[in-house]
Each structure stands twice: as C-alpha cells, then as structure tokens.
C-alpha cells in the first residue's frame, strides 16, 4: 500500500527494474516498456504511439494484435481516449467502452474497439509541459476501472515512456544507453523545467531536444538532472551550440 | 477596507475568473494571492497530487524561487504532506518547536523568514487531491475564523480546478489534475526561455507573462505557449503589469 508522498522512488525503481529486465541487456526501447507495463499494471495489452499532430501518428510498438488494432482505430477514426489524452494533456480513462456514456463520447471508436476485443482503454500522454510526444495506451478485454494503485503504476510507466521516446526521437542528442532509471531520481522540480527552457534557447533547439541534452549531460557527469538544472538556472553553466556532442562548453566550478 | 468587503470582492473576482475564459494557473495563482491578503499571512502555495505518490507545486502567491523551493520541499516532508496524508488541517504555530518532526522543512522555512505554517486539505468526497499552505513570518498561527476561511479557499480551489463534471467523475478527475500539473510545467519552461532571451530573470518572467496576458487579453497559458513558440513579449507591457501587480488596497 502506497503511503501518500512516500513511495515514488520505490515505484519508479520497480518500474525501471522491470523494463530493464524485459530488455535483457539490450538498449531499452518501446517494446520493453510495453511488455513491462502490461505485466506491472496487469492489463491485457499495451501500445506506444508517437504523434506530431492529429493526422500524423505512428504506432511504435504494440504487445498484441488487439493493442495494435486499438491504436489503428484511433488513427483512422480520429477519436478515442488516446486522441483525447494527446489533445488535452491528461490521462483519458475509458473503463467501459460498451456503455451508453462511451458511445456518446466516441460514437465510432467505442463500438469498434469493443468489436476488436477491448472493452476498456486507458490512454496516458507522454508529456512534459509543451513537450508532447504521443501516448501510452493500455487495454483490457473486460470492462472495469483501474485501481488507484494501477493508475499510479500506469502514470509511472508513462513518465518512463517519455524518457525512452525522447531519446528515440533525438538519437543524436544523447546515445540510447543514456536511457536509464533517471526518473527514479528525477524530482519534478520547477528548476528542471526552467533549465530545459534555457537550454533550448542556448542551443537553438526545441524543448524535447533540450531535455535530452540535459539528461545526457547529467548522465555523463554522473549526477542528477536537478543538479545540472540548478547550475543552468543559476547561470553557472551554459550549453554550447557549437559543440556537436551537445555537452556544455563552459564548465563553471560546480558550486553545489 | 473591512474584511467582509474585501472578502466579497475577492469571491466576486474568483467567480469571474471561473466564468470567463478559464485559465487554471491564473485562477490558482490569483487564489493564493488573495489568501495572503484576506488571511493576512505572508505567503501561500498550492500543491496537488500527481496520483503517483507525490505532491507537486501548482501555484504560489509569489514566484520567487526561494518560496517555490520551500513549497516543493513538502513533497518529502512538512505540514503540507501530513495534511494531505491525513486529510485534516495541520496548524503549526511555532515551526522552531518542530525541528525534530520536520528537520529539513523547519530549517528551510526559518531561513526564508517564516515562523508559522498552516495547511488546509483540498478534499473531494473521501479523497484528498492536494493542500493549501499558508506561511506567516510571525509565530502564532491563524485564529479560528481565519482557519475556517482558509479552508473555504482550499475548497474553492478544488471546485474551481476540477469543474463540476470532473468533481463527479473519477476518470475526469485524473485528467484535470494532470492537465493542471502539466500546465505548471509549461509555465516553468516558458519562464526559462524568457529569462534566457534576456528580458527577465526567472523570478520575474511569470509576472511579465501574466501582465502580457492581461494587456493582450489572452490566457496565461496561451502567452506561455507563445513564448515557447518564439514570441517576444513587449517590455512596456511587462512594465505596466508589474506596476499593476500590487494587490488592491
């Protein structure tokens, strides 16, 4: 039983252990996250999709045929929990697609998903502020809501998915081995997000790439992202656009 | 102004914010500012659950980094976390006496000049979705009337944040909480970009965006998006706003 506010690190560490176990020594990829989340949350299937707009989506991985079909229905019909999650930036939970409420909300998607074998679909945006990459979608063959514990796990895996997909989308900004259980240590602190904004301006890149650069640098230095963020916000560290490795050009003496 | 008059004005203002083109961060920021005025405390902040075991900062009466840090600390320890965990108000009239209970928090609060703190739960039926924090420079804490009023502010924050449908439906509750917290992240990213472009410090950037939102009749979140997309905020608008930020007497 989770104690309020106390178990995040343990939960994230458990999630990453499972993901890394699924990867079996290979660099962590979408496939491993999907298989791990299915096992941890105890759902029938999971899929990761990338979105750059309403009409530009692609399936990265699905654990099974039903999960794949659910993703395709979202793309072709342009509605459903995943579309909602991506559009509004919050989890979209549909515990019973075979209900009047669901068919009023998604007249095409709801019956089609039920027919495809998914009576419950839960979609989570992969996001950090203005960065929104896609969604993590879970399904159940039978209707029923997620428990608070399942929801907490699903949200933890969505955060992990963001890390994995960020690196996949910007391979030049940080090698795939940098994808590691960072999130277990990452505090969702204001400074980290301010630093991402500052680095984006310093390098003339988007926020997503700036996030990857920040993480890659923290990894290279062997410290937490929040420590590097503090240096950036305190103007003791700048990222240099002329350095192809994306590492900061001017190292200040870390005044931690 | 008598407290009743001030209170009437504040609730009319908050209701207006809810009815008009609603911006969740603007609403919660205004609410924390008005808590400071009406309850005569020195700072206020709101933390929400991310539904994965952690409280996250969503709004504060001042965007000074020092205050934001203190609020964020309470994800790990402090009266806010205890209030969230128990669903009841936590009143600490003298933080100096609580150094054993919350060593890190008590010291950080003391460093920032706060001696007393009060935490009010944001309740929804049998759940707690976050907490409102009130800080005072002088020890002693709130009287019973102010504490009741503080709880009313916390309840208004809950209903304003969730809206009628999300307050009713569990699935939408989750969505609204995430949207609010992610909007906060978006604001921080925009603050960083604005500061780096040279026009503001990180601490000032929020004020500049808020002033610009008012001057251009846009939502705060839309201004933050515009900053992220490269818009340059006109400095004279920011200056006007900074002057106008002073709370009404």
Q: What's this model, at a glance?
A:
Chain B: It holds the Pfam family GAF_2. Chain B: This is Transcriptional regulator. The complex is a heterodimer of chains A (256) and B (249). Chain A is of the alpha+beta class.
List descriptors.
heterodimer; A: 256 residues; alpha+beta; Beta-Lactamase; Arc Repressor Mutant, subunit A; 2 domains; 5-stranded antiparallel beta sheet; two-stranded antiparallel sheet; 10 helices; 18% strand; disordered N terminus; B: 249 residues; 58% helix; ANTAR (chain A); GAF-like_dom_sf (chain A); GAF domain-containing protein (chain A)
Structure commentary:
- Chain A is 48% helix and 18% strand.
- Chain A is an alpha+beta fold and 256 residues long.
- Chain A folds into 2 domains: 8-175, Beta-Lactamase, CATH 3.30.450.40; 185-251, Arc Repressor Mutant, subunit A (Orthogonal Bundle).
- A 5-stranded antiparallel sheet of chain A has the order 2-1-5-4-3, sandwiched between helices. A two-stranded antiparallel ribbon of chain A has the order 6-7.
- In chain A, a hairpin with an 8-residue loop joins strand 6 (237-239) and strand 7 (248-251).
- The longest helix of chain A has 22 residues, at 148-169.
- The two termini of chain A are 36 Å apart.
- Chain B folds into 2 domains: 3-167, 2-Layer Sandwich (Beta-Lactamase); 185-244, no CATH class.
- Chain B is built from 10 helices and 5 strands; from the N terminus they run ααββααβαββααααα.
- Chain B has helices at 3-19, 24-39, 65-73, 79-86, 103-111, 144-168, 170-196, 202-215, 220-228, 235-244; strands at 43-49, 55-60, 90-92, 116-124, 127-136.
- At the A-B interface, strand 3, strand 4, helix 7 and helix 8 of A face strand 2, helix 3, helix 4, helix 7 and helix 9 of B.
């Amino acid at each position: 039983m989770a104690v309020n506010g106390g178990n995040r690190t343990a939960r994230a560490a458990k999630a990453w252990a499972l993901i890394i176990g699924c990867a079996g020594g290979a660099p962590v990829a979408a496939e491993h996250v999907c298989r791990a989340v299915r096992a941890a949350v105890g759902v029938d299937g999971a899929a990761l999709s990338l979105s750059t707009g309403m009409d530009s989506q692609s399936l990265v991985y699905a654990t099974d045929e039903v999960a794949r079909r659910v993703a395709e229905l979202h793309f072709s019909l342009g509605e459903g929990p995943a579309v909602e999650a991506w559009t509004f930036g919050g989890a979209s939970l549909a515990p019973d697609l075979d209900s009047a409420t669901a068919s009023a909300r998604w007249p095409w998607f709801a019956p089609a998903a039920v027919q495809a074998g998914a009576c419950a679909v839960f979609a989570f945006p992969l996001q950090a502020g203005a960065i929104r990459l896609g969604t993590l979608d879970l399904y159940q063959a039978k209707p029923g809501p997620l428990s608070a514990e399942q929801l907490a796990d699903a949200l933890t895996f969505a955060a992990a998915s963001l890390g994995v997909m960020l690196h996949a989308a910007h391979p030049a900004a940080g090698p795939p081995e940098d994808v590691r259980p960072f999130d277990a240590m990452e505090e969702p602190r204001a400074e980290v997000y301010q630093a991402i904004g500052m680095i984006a301006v310093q390098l003339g890149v988007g926020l997503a790439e700036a996030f990857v650069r920040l993480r890659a640098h923290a990894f290279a230095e062997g410290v937490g992202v929040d420590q590097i963020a503090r240096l950036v916000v305190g103007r003791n560290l700048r990222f240099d656009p002329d350095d192809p490795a994306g590492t900061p050009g001017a190292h200040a003496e870390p005044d931690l | 102004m008598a407290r009743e008059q001030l209170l009437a004005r504040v609730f009319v203002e908050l209701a207006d914010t809810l009815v008009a083109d609603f911006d969740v961060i603007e609403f919660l920021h205004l609410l924390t500012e008005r808590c400071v005025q009406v309850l005569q405390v020195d700072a206020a902040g709101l933390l929400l659950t991310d539904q994965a075991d952690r409280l996250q900062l969503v709004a504060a009466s001042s965007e000074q980094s020092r205050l934001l840090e203190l609020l964020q600390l309470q994800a790990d320890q402090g009266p806010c976390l205890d209030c969230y965990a128990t669903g009841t108000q936590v009143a600490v009239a003298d933080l100096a006496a609580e150094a054993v209970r919350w060593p890190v928090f008590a010291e950080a609060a003391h460093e920032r000049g706060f001696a007393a703190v009060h935490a009010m739960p944001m309740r929804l039926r049998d759940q707690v979705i976050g907490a409102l924090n009130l800080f005072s420079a002088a020890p002693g804490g709130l009287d019973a009337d102010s504490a009741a009023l503080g709880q009313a502010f916390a309840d208004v924050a809950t209903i304003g944040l969730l809206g009628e449908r999300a307050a009713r439906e569990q699935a939408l509750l989750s969505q609204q909480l995430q949207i609010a917290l992610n909007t906060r992240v978006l604001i921080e990213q925009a603050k960083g970009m604005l500061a780096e472009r040279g026009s503001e410090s990180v601490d000032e950037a929020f004020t500049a965006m808020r002033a610009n939102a008012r001057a251009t009749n846009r939502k705060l979140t839309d201004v933050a998006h515009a900053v992220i997309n490269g818009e340059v905020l006109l400095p004279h608008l920011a200056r006007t706003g900074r002057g106008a930020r002073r709370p009404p007497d």
